[in-house]
Specification:
The protein has about 475 residues and is an alpha/beta fold. The protein is built from 16 helices and 20 strands. Helices cover about 40% and strands about 20% of the residues. Helix 2 crosses helix 7 and helix 4 runs parallel beside helix 5. The chain is globular, with a radius of gyration of 23 Å. Bound molecules: NADPH dihydro-nicotinamide-adenine-dinucleotide phosphate. NADPH dihydro-nicotinamide-adenine-dinucleotide phosphate binds next to helix 8, strand 10 and helix 9.
Length: about 475
């Protein structure tokens, strides 16, 4: 019998499901059991062509609609997503293995927020009037044209919406390629947009591995590429986009610092460290995986952290009591287990976890290492799994320098009751998305993105509009034209 997660077809182009079984089969594995639940096919060159030509053809008429009309469609799509939140969350759990406890509140809901927010902004995208004596200049905020979105596997619904909603609000069309690991959810976003009234072709989904992404990025008809992925992929995609002088948004990886001062509320700090390391089993780009704890509270912090981490409930992700799910794939599990071994070999002190959980599926126990030093592999490389490194520090000056000593710059957090210090420290940290006495909040109203190798551009908020539109300026002369001859 067909599993309920099996989509009608692999791709969604021009308002309908499209199949081409000549493409390489991509098995969809449920991470909690290892069972294959669906199959899709990678896009063939014919499918890529169909998606790009359809999107290109649909874009101009979409951009000519008023912002109010486009916004209404996006907001209707948000309403449909909220009505179907439960079904979409179950599907996201099948796609990623993340517990339903999380997917019910953090994926389709976050996607719906983006559709609603950018739907609301669509009508307000105006230009300026710049008076110059009798003459004047006016500016228009115009769509870029055809945008490509490429997603990572950790938030497949959210990523499709974080890219699709601002792109469409600005009058662009999009071809979105999900990660081959999680191909299911973006198809639902495309389906819902059509149901909400979006013209066929403005949001299309094609499946595939890196080469399909590569074909999309290098196509001369594409005006912009927005990628969520790792730094190495980001460098390749950025370079390919530069070849065609395309706009880019790069949301890449991190190794973010979370700094906890002696005066912090310990339980809040522990909560921040848990949210910043173990949510989605650690598969979150902005995670605060280098937890710097001031020496005075170190042992107290570690004791409370170990105690609360022991309360994590590993189990069937469809059971809403489960609070900690598996790694997305067997491969990702093995990568993370490799880092755990490195941590042990290089002399970090294991506080809890440290191994694969004794159960079906790709579960790793939430793991905390203490006495981690800056040069250890687990303190330098992005792990993308439930592995927290706790490092000690003495002074503010020292911790800021050490926190910044990384190629990454996605996020940073500080816990302290001294607000002057909190703002000073955040001001000195090289990171794009920061938190004071909190960690990993990502409301659609706030800009999200990194500095240094963690990326360029911002998603969400009004900032995202700038990255999905361009300004045309028009000089208007009222008098005669003077010329030298
Ligand atoms: P990858 O970088 O491996 O892949 C990201 C996407 O790019 C996938 O859809 C992938 O396809 C595609 N891709 C790979 N190679 C190319 C290429 N040459 N040209 C075009 N597209 C290509 O990342 P993961 O999927 O493994 O996701 C984990 C990474 O994403 C982590 O490093 C994490 O930090 C980062 N991330 C960043 C976020 C942010 O907002 N800053 C949020 C979430 C994750 P396929 O996988 O199908 O081969």
């Amino acid at each position: 019998m067909t599993h309920p997660a099996q989509p009608k077809a692999s791709h969604f182009i021009n308002g309908e499901y499209v199949e081409d079984t000549a493409g390489t089969p991509i098995p969809v594995i449920y991470a909690a059991t290892g069972e294959q639940i669906a199959t899709v096919h990678a896009a063939t060159p014919a499918i890529v062509e169909q998606a790009l030509s359809t999107a290109k053809a649909a874009q101009k008429a979409w951009a000519r609609m008023t912002g109010t009309e486009r916004g209404r469609i996006l907001r209707r799509a948000a309403d449909i997503m909220r009505e179907r939140n439960h079904d979409l969350s179950v599907l996201e759990t099948y796609d990623t293995g993340k517990p339903l406890q999380e997917t019910l509140v953090a994926d389709a809901t976050s996607g719906a927020d983006a559709l609603e927010y950018f739907g609301g902004l669509a009508a307000s995208l105006t230009g300026e009037h710049i008076p110059l004596g009798e003459d004047w200049v006016y500016t228009k905020r115009e769509a870029l044209g055809l945008c490509v979105g490429i997603g990572a596997w950790n938030y497949p619904t959210q990523i499709a919406c974080w890219k699709g909603a601002p792109a469409l609000a600005c009058g662009n069309a999009m071809v979105f390629k999900p990660s081959e690991t999680t191909p299911l959810c973006a198809l639902k976003v495309a389906e819902i947009l059509i149901e909400a009234g979006a013209p066929a072709g403005v949001f299309n989904v094609v499946q595939g591995m890196g080469e399909v992404g590569g074909a999309l990025v290098t196509d001369p008809r594409v005006d912009k590429v927005s990628l969520t992925g790792s730094v190495p992929t980001g460098k390749k995609v950025y370079a390919a986009a530069a070849e065609g002088m395309k706009h880019v948004t790069m949301e890449l990886g991190g190794k973010s610092p979370l700094i906890i001062f002696d005066d912090a509320d310990i339980d809040n700090a522990v909560g921040g460290a848990i949210n910043g390391n173990f949510y989605s089993s650690g598969q979150v780009c902005s995670n605060g995986t280098r937890v710097f704890v001031q020496k005075g509270i170190k042992e107290k912090f570690l004791a409370r952290l170990a105690e609360r981490t022991g309360n994590a409930i590993l189990g069937d992700p469809m059971d809403e009591a489960t609070s900690f799910g598996p790694m997305v794939t067997e491969n990702q599990m093995n990568i993370v287990l490799g880092y755990i071994e490195k941590g042990k070999e290089e002399g970090a002190r294991l506080i809890c976890g440290g191994k694969r959980a004794d159960m079906d599926g790709y579960f790793i126990e939430p793991t905390v290492f203490a006495d981690v030093t800056d040069d250890m592999t687990i303190a330098r490389e992005e792990i993308f799994g439930p592995v927290m490194s706790v490092l000690d520090f003495d002074t503010e000056e020292e911790v800021v320098a050490r926190a910044n000593d990384t190629e990454f710059g996605l996020s940073a957090g500080v816990f302290t009751k001294d607000f002057t210090r909190a703002h000073r420290v955040i001001g000195n940290l090289e990171a794009g998305s920061c938190f004071i006495n909190s960690y990993n909040d990502a409301p659609v109203e706030a800009p999200f993105g990194g500095v240094k190798a963690s990326g360029v551009g911002r998603e969400n908020s009004k900032e995202a509009i700038k990255h999905f539109s361009q300004v045309k300026s028009v000089y208007v002369r009222m008098g005669d034209v003077e010329a030298a001859f």
